[in-house]
Amino acid sequence: MTGDGVAEPSKSGAAGPADSDVAGPSESGVAGPADSGVAGSSDGGLLVEWLAPKAAALESRGLTRRLRARAADEVLIDLASNDYLGLARDPRVIEAAVAAVREWGASATASRLVTGTTALHAELESSLAAYAGQSSGLVFSSGYLANLGVITALGGPGTLLVSDEHVHASIVDACRLSRSRVEIVPHNDVEAVGKALAERNEPHAVVLIESVYSVLGDAAPLEALSAVALEHGAVLLVDEAHGLGVTGNGHGSVHAAGLAGLDHVIVTMTLSKSLASQGGAVLGPAVLREHLINRARPFIFDTGLNPAACAAALAALRVLIDEPTRPDTIHTTAARLAAACNVTPSAGAVVSVPMPGPREAVHAASLCLENGVRVGSFRPPSVPDGISRLRLTAHAGLSTDDLDRACAVITTAIKEAS
Ligand SMILES: Cc1ncc(COP(=O)(O)O)c(C=O)c1O
């Protein structure tokens, strides 16, 4: 989520026509030195000529994104952040991060294979794996890099990647980097996945999905996809960014579906949503972990996750284990928000409300903000189907009064903006 609480640039659909209309080389109009004044001058002449038309094109379509720094003492009802379990300001999580800084210092000091692996990394990896029912885990410095790392390390000319059309941008980018042939299949279409797998020439294949989709908020048919992958000798990679901590009483959708620990199932996750920290992980068989340590470039050539982030995620995981009903409140809040906005209840924390267009979505989000409620919005290119939406995230720990007030503000804003 961006700092403006309005745009969500981290989401993007499959191999992006929506991306390409933002920055096409044909629009570049690069100016020569004669146009840009003194070579190397700091007035930005060359870049202004290059980029200003692109900025104007975005502005004319209502798609400009802006950063707005939030204040630490801001008093808004938060329905925009990804702090699903409400743990980012939990004293136990904060204290663990502070203690880790005191013990380990402010930095991991190097990449994981040099000095960047601490006892905290090791504990976090085994704890995450145990909680999700997987045999091993490997922590990356973000969920984005976890997807990039595992998909590129499994990809290549001998691997077909079969990707759902609505997967997150990090999976899309991993596909692009992987040098694999990529088949993009319609959303949640098990038959199309089977067909792509059956018709392949590559010896290996990986099916790429999310357990709970970040834009639509719906769930993947995990059992059917696992079965079709197994039938065709393929691996199923499930991004549980929106599942772990939320679905399956917190243990995630793969665990709930009885697929945890199967040797053709891989889970990727982020530590930055339910676990209130930063970082990501790949969970799966030990042989995969070994392969990633040796082959995943975003793991090998990146500084290890900050010890404070490891400790915060571990503390949040402990809270989740000690308070197993915490995820329930996410679902009751999400159901209430969905009912207020007259949309289908979501499988996770994100309630996605279609809006007539990007301007209406931004206007509605601004009206909410003016009335003390922070919500997000999805606009192209973040939405693979091109439909702008309000993005409401349900949080554990929201009081009934706040929820009542938020529902009233949001429904009024939607009416006014549409
Ligand atoms: C489905 C999905 N995968 C991966 C990520 C990336 O995680 P991180 O923010 O830890 O890089 C996100 C975050 O928005 C996500 O929604």
UniProtKB/TrEMBL annotation:
One of its GO terms (biological process) is biotin biosynthetic process. Residues 28-37 have a biased composition (Low complexity). It comes from the Bacteria. Keywords: Biotin biosynthesis, Pyridoxal phosphate, Transferase. InterPro entries: Aminotrans_II_pyridoxalP_BS, Aminotransferase_I/II_large, AON_synthase_class-II, PyrdxlP-dep_Trfase, PyrdxlP-dep_Trfase_major, PyrdxlP-dep_Trfase_small. Residues 1-37 are annotated as: Disordered. GO terms for molecular function: 8-amino-7-oxononanoate synthase activity; pyridoxal phosphate binding. Residues 76-410 form the Aminotransferase class I/classII large domain. Its EC number is 2.3.1.47. SUPFAM superfamilies: PLP-dependent transferases. Belongs to the class-II pyridoxal-phosphate-dependent aminotransferase family. BioF subfamily. This is 8-amino-7-oxononanoate synthase.
